[in-house]
Amino acid sequence: MSTNGDGGFSADEMMAVEAARRVADGTVCFVGIGLPSLAANLARRTHAPDCVLVYESGTIGAKPTKLPLSIGDGELADTADTVVSVPEMFAYWLQGNRIDVGFLGAAQIDRHGNLNSTVIGDYDHPKVRLPGGGGAPEIATGVRDVFVMLRQTPRSFVERLDFTTSVGDRVRVVVTDLGILEPHDGELTLVGVHPGVDVEDVRAATGWDLRIAGDVRITDPPSDVELSALRTLEPKGRA
Amino acid sequence: MSTNGDGGFSADEMMAVEAARRVADGTVCFVGIGLPSLAANLARRTHAPDCVLVYESGTIGAKPTKLPLSIGDGELADTADTVVSVPEMFAYWLQGNRIDVGFLGAAQIDRHGNLNSTVIGDYDHPKVRLPGGGGAPEIATGVRDVFVMLRQTPRSFVERLDFTTSVGDRVRVVVTDLGILEPHDGELTLVGVHPGVDVEDVRAATGWDLRIAGDVRITDPPSDVELSALRTLEPKGRA
Amino acid sequence: MIVPLRDAIRDLVRDGDTVALEGFTHLIPHAAGHEVARQGKRELTLVRMTPDVVYDQLIGMGCARKLLFSWGGNPGVGSLHRLRDAVEKGWPSALEIEEHSHAGMAAAYAAGAANLPFGVLRGYRGDLSAHTRVETVTCPFTGEELAAVPALRPDVAVVHAQQADLRGNVQLWGILGVQKETVLAASRAIVTVEEIVDELQPRPGAIVLPSWVIDAVSLAPGGAHPSYSHGYYDRDNDFYVAWDEISRDRDRFRAWMQRHVLDTADITEYHASLAAEVATA
Amino acid sequence: MIVPLRDAIRDLVRDGDTVALEGFTHLIPHAAGHEVARQGKRELTLVRMTPDVVYDQLIGMGCARKLLFSWGGNPGVGSLHRLRDAVEKGWPSALEIEEHSHAGMAAAYAAGAANLPFGVLRGYRGDLSAHTRVETVTCPFTGEELAAVPALRPDVAVVHAQQADLRGNVQLWGILGVQKETVLAASRAIVTVEEIVDELQPRPGAIVLPSWVIDAVSLAPGGAHPSYSHGYYDRDNDFYVAWDEISRDRDRFRAWMQRHVLDTADITEYHASLAAEVATA
After folding, report:
1. Chain C contact set for B95 (CB, 8 A)
2. What gap in Å lies between CA D69 and CA D47, rounded to an integer?
3. Interfacial A residues in 14-33 facing C (CB < 8 Å)
């Protein structure tokens, strides 16, 4: 797995740490599986012990001790404050505006933060049929703030999406393996790069003419505390 | 409390027994408080041990040992197969067509089985403001068969309702303290009288020109089994 | 988070608010209702599927401008005399009513909890549709016409529960009514509880309301009386019967409210006052 | 009421039916799905929010004509290769898809359970609305436009639960998913269970489905594998990873299905067959 320079941490770890740092204590997070789950759980294990993890499987206030492999792992229900049905989760909790932050990933993103997790190529004659939107379309419009986590390549950061699975109105930040993008006047703009990454690397990894902020800061590398918390959470084989 | 002749049973008891006799075993009954609850519980205690009592408070499969005074008595929840929320009860179970028989009472009924439990006099300037419809409007259209239980007087059996709380489309039988009415071609018709009651008594107690069936049978009086089951159910002071 | 009931009502219930003190025969928030009366809140729009004794009391004390309801009686006993007096004779003040069916109100609360502007149901046949806020929606797939009710979004939800933990998470069980929907539909939520425990032990049939959907939790043991709290105490059926007499007469009603509610400071004094009356009877 | 799974599938699932084998990562009815494959049911419209391995198997075996879904992947692993092969290359036969979002399907199941023709939600922004059955409804009170989805009313619901009692009442707990709505929305319902007990002991967080909303209950211990049954066994995460390899190749997939499903009589033989393979590996 790729690492940035010789920092002794992986790109995934840098992404998870940078996303976790943006979760304020007490935040109610709607969490999907993989990196978002890693980031949200890391936040809860470090600076945000009272952030609330909500998984779309219906578990509210889950406190997993290890990173779940699926959003439905039994430990999520065992450690939750309450478990509700999936229809209740989407109607009363997500649509009901009870969620502060929702994490999303995707196969493609455009400069406006619109995401594609549905199909590559034509919808009716797809080159690659992806799993689909799942909860994403209504997460993107139901939470207060959307955090996107996505590896940055010209094939994922595209001029035009093959399909718009979810809209970018509420995207506040995009954390990639290279840096940090935030919307300025509705267009994603590079505001930070990770240690060992040049602005030109990020520009080259972007399928559109990337807007660069006046002052691009360099991300703080993961602290020992963050890394050790992260590695107690990660299942064997990841990172 | 009135009794019919010297049968040694009250008019309420006759009504409850006659209604209970119409509950087939295994029937799912939506039950209100008072006489309907008495009738449904009596059926369960006698010939219909597998009839299912559903109270609008959310208790499904309640098995009370004594007659509840309110539809929300704790024993209903303690003895139920499951308790659901009130919105679920009305959406999934009543509107969802899961109920066979619904019992209704009222202050007024007309010849078509339409019922008034809302107001006497003008709605905006009522002579008597009654409690209102509660579950009745959707019980009347959500269950397969509506059983009405109502004491028969010219003031309750009226030519024209002051207010239509629920419609009579699904009314299959009206059990009164005098006899039994069933709809023939959409008009309630006297098909039975209780012991000691004359057809003329019933006609005199009806506010419209009552249609009488060709063969008006005489109701079997409550059996000893029915009466003893009934009296173990009834709280002190009733009947 | 966990505050005295007096402070919760003072800070979260404002004159003119739409307030839903919910409870479907079980866990009726009487203690909170009494505190609303003590603080003399006015011009309230009271919302409840089954307004019973506590709403009879608030209406008789002139706290309400409007009542939105689906069944207004004294369960198992008869009429609510203060409600009738207000509707029929405008005493102590005129009371506007908006009447619905149980199914309609349940759908309206669920729509409010789901942040939808209306609820859909098969219902409202009969005369009520001519006297309340119900419209028709047409199914875009089948062309069927259904009833639509406006979502209920109270300013304040008030419910009673068995337990809260030290962080303000609430657990209630037994008959659940429409309490979860009421809390989630409202802008502000007050929960009174029988007891506060270190940690909630999950119970069969229980629902949990996390602290972050609640604005205030207040300890009020016996706070549902004359209603009941499943697992704590039974329904005081005799009180409901007695209320029929107490509430029939305006002066007797007012004297009762003065003695047992206005002249008591909280739920503890209320229960002591009732006990003293029985003792001297 | 309580019948062998073979009989339940034979009598209640017909070629051409719309069948929802539901389960949201937990309690996925694999044993029932395998029996559908053994009996070679054809032309099915398969409905599920999260079709995963069991639907990959049924699609690869040519049982399905259409798939109605909202997320079709191998959770935590990647793609479903049999689903992709059917959609991208029409193997073994063309598969029509009707795609929704989770929120849309949840609303559609709830509408079906409530006997409403459509569900309402705030959603379906983006391109999907141009490719699926979603319409607009206007709030008659506010004028707001919302999304409407057609109610889901499957011919058959199939779910897995932990327990049934001798009368066929079912209890399930842990992650509840959309199983109650699926059963109540369907014309016929089959429930497989881990065990049959004399009497159900109420559990925290459990839901109960009374026997009178279910057509058949069948004993299938281990019937959720590779999914899990909360309180009975854990999710076989390694199997989901292994499935990625097994399902990539058409011949390897068919050989696997032949050995472990078609050549086994029931859930017990299926587990024995998997164990034997591990032993000889």
Report:
1. 103, 121-123
2. 6
3. 26, 28
Q: Cα(D267)–Cα(D276) distance, rounded to whole angstroms?
A: 14
* pTM given for the model: 0.97
Q: What are phi and psi of A133, to 5 degrees?
A: -75, -35
Interface residue of B86, B117, B162 to substitute, partner C, most C CBs within 10 Å: B86
Annotated catalytic residue within B13, B18, B56, B226 = B56
CA–CA separation, C10 and C41 (whole Å): 9
3-state secondary structure of C108: helix
Helix (H, G, I), strand (E, B) or coil at B137: helix
Contact predicate A148/A113, CB 8 Å: yes
D5-44 core/surface letters (b: 16 or more CB in 10 A; e: else): beebbeebbeeebbbbbbbbbbbbbbbbbbbbbbeebeeb
Please confirm, yes or no, whether B182 is among the known catalytic residues: no
- Burial label for C132, CB within 10 Å (0-12, 13-18, 19+), is middle
D32 and D158 Cβ atoms separated by less than 8 Å: yes
Find where tokens 């069916």 sit. C101
* Rounded-to-10 torsion of CA D228, D229, D231, D234: -10
Cis-peptide into C226, omega within 30 deg:
yes
Query: Helix/strand/coil (H, E, C) string of A219-235?
Result: CCCCCHHHHHHHHHHCC
The CB density around residue A19, as the number of other CB atoms within 10 Å, is: 25
CA-based nearest residue in chain C for residue A98: C213
Strands A179-184 and B52-55: unpaired
Nearest residue to D183 (alpha-carbon basis) of D15, D4, D27, D25: D27
- Phi–psi pair at B181, nearest 5 degrees: -120, 140
Q: What is the DSSP letter of B22?
A: T
Residue pair D162/D173 in contact (Cβ under 8 Å)? The answer is yes
What is the complex's ipTM, to 2 decimals? 0.96
Minimum distance, in Å, between the CA of residue D249 and any CA atom of chain A? 17
On whether the CB atoms of residues A84 and A12 are closer than 8 A, the answer is no
Size of interface B-D (CB pairs under 8 A): 31
Neighbouring CB atoms inside 10 A of A200's CB total 10
Give the other-Cβ count within 10 Å of C8's Cβ.
24
CA distances from B96 to B88, C216, D155, D213 (A): 10, 36, 15, 11
Give pLDDT tens digits along chain B (239 positions): 344 445 589 999 999 999 999 999 999 999 977 788 899 999 999 999 999 999 999 999 999 888 877 766 788 899 999 999 999 999 999 999 999 999 999 999 999 999 999 999 999 999 999 999 999 999 999 999 999 999 999 999 999 999 999 999 999 999 999 999 999 999 999 999 999 999 999 999 999 999 999 999 999 999 999 999 999 887 543 43
